[in-house]
Every structure is written in C-alpha cells, then in structure tokens.
Amino acid sequence: MPGLFIAFEGGDGAGKTTQASLLETALCERGYSTVSVREPGSTTLGNYLRQYLVNEQPVSPLAELFLFEASRAELMREVIEPQLAAGAVVIADRFAGSTIAYQGYGRGLNLERIEWLNDVATGGRFPDLTVLLDIDPSIGLGRVHGRQLELRLQYGEESDRFEDQQPDFHHNVRYGFQQQAAANQGCWVLVEANQSIETVASQVWCAVETKLGLHSSQE
Q1: Which of 25, 75, 67 is nearest to 50 (CA)?
Q2: Which helix (H) or strand (E) segment is 129 a member of?
Q3: Which residues form the domain of 212?
Q4: Distance (Å, rounded) from C-alpha 94 to C-alpha 20?
Q5: Kind and range of the H or E element at 6?
Q6: Are 158 and 152 a contacting pair, CB within 8 Å?
Q7: CB 55, CB 158: distance < 8 Å
Q8: CATH number for the domain that contains residue 127
C-alpha cells in the first residue's frame, strides 16, 4: 500500500516538533514504518540552507522563498517520494503551508506565485493530512524564548530570524495558517495548541487514525 504523508504546521512555539515525535512513536508502536523530516533540512542541501538562513545575513523575501523551494524540491526527490513509494508514513515538521503563511501572509509575497512554486517544487504531491497546531503568537513566542538556550545546544543555532520578527508579522502568519485550514478542510485539521501535550497528542491521533482508516479503505 502506498505510504501516507502527514505534515505539522503552525507558528513558532506551537509544539510541532514535540507532536511530530509523539505521533511517530504512536505509529511505530502500531507497526507502521515511519520517516520524519523537517523543513528546511533532512538532506545535505536542506541542512546547508537551514544553517545559511539562520546564521548568515538576511536575504530578500523573494530570495528566501526560492531557498525554501529549493530545499523542498530536494527533500521530495531524495526522501519523501521514495519513502512514500515504499509504503512509509512520512511525518514532516513544516511543509508548503509554512511557505504560504510566512513568505505570503508574513512577508507579503504574491500568494498565487507561491502556490505555483510550491506545486513545481513538490511535483503536485502535498500532504494527505496537515495538522495545524494553532496558538496565539504571544504564547508561542513565550515558549520559544523560554527554551532558547536549550534549542541552541540541541541544534547549534544562534537564533531564528522568523522568531525575531515584529508581533504583526506573527499575527499575519497565524491568519495565513488559519485561512489555509479553512479552505482545505478535507485534508487540514486545526488543533488548539495551548493545551497539555497529552491532550494535543490525543486530538492529533484521532485525526491521524481517521485518515489511516480512510487511506486503507481506498486501496
């Protein structure tokens, strides 16, 4: 059976990495083969671009967009497509929805052009399920700043340019995510992230379990 593609989206501090890890554990315990990826990252090119975007001088919004799309194209070719063809459940910590939210609603780039580039980079293959972890930016950024030293130690990163943006930027990004969830209710599910980790994980699993059942019945 072809694999299943699940992505976690949301603003900074929403808990995407934590929930992606918990979901992977739950799936493995039930016998599923899983692969986790993050954007940008999970390939040689993606990891290089991640470090460049974090540590080098800021680039223009348009150049930033192209760097993310280049990373995504390589991730699709090198990891996601082969793993899905092998029947794995691929779990992505961010995907194309983040580009629409951050570079489109946040940076103000043309949404239609971003959607076209997303389609080119992915070859038209988007997640079967996108879990939007929705959270007020003030709460999410508070979480991030509270663990900033821990993140630096874990990933070797000095800062995150998106986290450093003004409040309006983050509110626009949140709105961008919410708009996508509202427009794609068949493949997006919104989960309130300002709950306990266990409660969020339970709601995420309910959405994934439903998608797994539908996916199996369609084969």
Answers
A1: 67
A2: strand 129-134
A3: 4-218
A4: 10
A5: strand 4-9
A6: yes
A7: yes
A8: 3.40.50.300
Structure tokens at 31: 């016998």
| pLDDT tens-digit readout, 180-209 | 999 999 999 999 999 999 999 999 999 999
Question: pLDDT at position 56, please?
Answer: 79
Predicted confidence (pLDDT) per residue in 5-18, tens digit: 999 999 988 999 99
Give the DSSP H/E element, type plus range, for residue 115: helix 111-122
The residues, ordered by sequence, that sit 6+ positions from 151 with a Cβ below 8 Å of its Cβ are: 144, 157
**Separation of alpha carbons 180 and 114, rounded Å:** 13
Q: Would you state the pLDDT for residue 55?
A: 84
Q: Tokens 């300002």 identify what position?
A: 194
Of 111, 93, 92, the C-alpha closest to 175 is 111
Residue 5 falls in which region: left (phi positive, over 0), alpha (psi -120 to 50) or beta: beta
Smallest CA-to-CA distance from 155 within 141, 142, 170, 144 is with 144
Q: Parallel, antiparallel, or unpaired: how do β-strands 188-192 and 129-134 relate?
A: parallel
pLDDT band at 77 (very low <50, low <70, confident <90, very high): very high
Two structure tokens written together for 160: 């995150």
Domain count along the chain: 1
Q: Tell whether pTM > 0.85.
A: yes
Sort 59 into a burial class: Cβ within 10 Å, 0-12 / 13-18 / 19+.
middle
